[in-house]
Amino acid sequence: MARGGSESELDRELTDLPPELRWREWMRRIEAVLFASASPVPREALARIIGQGASVDLLVEDLVADLEGRAFELAQVAGGWMFRTRTAYGPAIRAAADVGDQLLDLNEFDVAVLAAIAYHQPITRDGLKDIFGKEISRDLMGRLHAHGLIGTGPRSPRRGAPYTFVTTGQFLAAFDLESLRDLPDREQLDDAGLTE
Prior knowledge:
Blueprint: H1 19-36, E1 41-42, H2 43-47, H3 56-66, E2 72-77, E3 80-85, H4 90-96, H5 108-120, H6 125-132, H7 138-146, E4 150-152, E5 165-167, H8 169-174, H9 186-191
Helix pairs in contact: 1-3
């Protein structure tokens, strides 16, 4: 999110307000920043808009409580926070709004390729071929990239220095993960019958 103006123009401490109003104003600032952002906002960014002695985590907790019962929620994903519509309202949104281009529309194989990238990143197309026993199409990789789910990682140290692929913050947000540490471990996948 691009920053406009100068941080020095912002009264972070709000010493002219009584403590309870100061807290409420900091909560509203966090709410405004999250509402305006299309991607998760990290703690460090939120800390720039509140007083030095205030806790981002406690302010966010109070904001979450404030939003209880609303159609949207505050979610911690990809190393930050973002607003999103509660799952129960998905059908209503799809019925009333043109969100077709926002839907991922991934099939089982697409998700399997994404999972392989997430677990083995950085990985080359040859690495994916070794996992799946077949060539992964450039079209599929292009679609995953176009959705912002994967990006180009470091060049492989092998001959020809092929490109590698990695997952992105958008991948984490799309699959409701705060970080890659939140991916299911091998035992969880075995228990769910998702591995061979």
